[in-house]
Amino acid sequence: MSDVLKAVLSHPQHPEYGQVTISFPIPNDQYGQTIKMLQAIDLGFSVNRDCKVNKVESPYSVLDVIEDTLVNVDQLDYLAKRLYCLEAYGFKRVCFVLSNTLNEMAQPRLVSEEVRKWSQLPWVPPDGKRNRQFAVEASAPQLEALIRQTRTAYQALGLFGPEHCAGDPSKLDYEGKVLVLSPGALRESHWSPRD
Questions:
Q1: Would you tell me which of 46, 59, 101, 122 could form a disulfide with 135, CB atoms 3.0–4.6 Å apart?
Q2: Based on the domain organization, do 98 and 151 belong to the same domain?
Q3: For the CA atoms of the chain, what is the radius of gyration?
């Protein structure tokens, strides 16, 4: 599993304890060591937001917002594992799972109207039996944050959309050009406008 982010963490009340840099997601075989290292400077307790994030290094610029905030190590690890899914499984699968998760929620009103509208875009076949197997366990705020980050990463691809079509479509010259009506029909490796 590759690093999604590196965070420089410190104790908010005791900066004299120094800083520690942790790569996320934390590999399962290194989790215990990492927590012991954090607990040596009185951090890493699972119920507390006890770590101050001094610096974040990540290809996901949206994560810059957590600098100078207090976080829980397990929540940061959870977030990194979800973002790793984008790299490992691609946008189509991740969007399907996130949309399905929202559809399977007992109280979907706990997330914003904007995110609920987005969840209707990826097609999820109606199925009362198997869909629950393709859902993540997350609180409403975690799910909303993950969906927003996924959407931000998707928008950063700079794909063409209806807003890129200039003028009246009936008067445009399509001869010798490829017109893609649904980018979802393409392999993700061809989602870049330059391709």
A1: 101
A2: yes
A3: 20
Strand partners, 57: 6
Q: Which residue has the tokens 């063409």?
A: 160
Rounded distance, CA 50 to CA 9, Å?
A: 10
pLDDT digits (tens, 9 = 90+) for 166-185: 667 677 777 776 666 666 66
* Cα within 13 Å of Cα(93), Cβ side: 12
**DSSP reduced 3-state for 95:** helix
Residue 178 covered by a domain: no
Check residue 181 and report its DSSP letter: S
Domain end residue (candidates: 78, 105, 120): 78
Structural domain ending residue among the three candidates 54, 78, 102:
78
Amino acid identity, position 85? C
- Split into its structural domains, the chain has a count of 2
Q: Please answer whether residues 7 and 53 qualify as being in contact, where contact means their C-beta atoms are separated by less than 8 angstroms.
A: yes
| Phi-psi category of residue 68: left, alpha or beta, with phi > 0 → left and psi -120 to 50 → alpha | left
Tens digit of pLDDT for each residue in 64-97? 778 888 888 888 888 788 777 767 777 788 888 8
CA 62 from chain center: how many Å? 9
Strand partners, 52: 10, 70
